[in-house]
Design a protein that fits this description.
The protein has 234 residues and is an alpha+beta fold. 23% of the residues lie in helices and 28% in strands.
Amino acid sequence: MLEESPKNIRINKYLAMQGVTTRRDADKIIEAGKVTINGRKAVLGDRVNEGDKVEVLKKLKNNFVYFAYYKPRGIITHSPQDGETDIVSLIKIKGVFPIGRLDKDSEGLILLTNDGRITDRLLNPKYEHDKEYIVKTRVPIKEFQLKVMKKGMDLEGMTTAPCKTRLIDDKLFAITISEGQKHQIRRMCDALTLPIDSLKRVRVMNIKLGQLKPNEYRKIEGEELKEFLKSLSL
């Protein structure tokens, strides 16, 4: 039996929220008669209410795959315009999509998968998953600038949460954030008059970029994958 049901929610959405499968694949297992609501076989379009007993009749075997990919600078994550190249058209892995974004001028780690369950759990700010970046600046970094970032900043239309910073050398620092507001690190640096030369994401939760080079990827599996999914409650 799955967790207590919310009020009046479609059965496929409920199964996706519970981490059983994606909403699209939920429709398939419902059609196959593998889901029951209060002892009767569920049908497409059924809705679940608080107190309903929802069960999946047998453990499902999924074909989810996960990859760590080094997005090169100059490549678009999603929705390229004329003359631009996006990740999906560049890689040779079929059936996967990028989770989250890196802007065109940034580079580094992007997760690729066919598992739609992880999108909200990874990107929704309420879950506070760490993402680490290495930033190279065009001018020397002052200690007070990193302290301001660390405490959180009030920017125009944005308030950043406290974060971790670490000076590597006079023009290089690491920053770990648990949110991902649009152009957040670039806007923080702009407000502190720190022009950026390069911005690279090197870690998402326990998944590290490691020795990957631009446009290279590796499969996430074994203990690394187990830890990652466990942290997402999957």
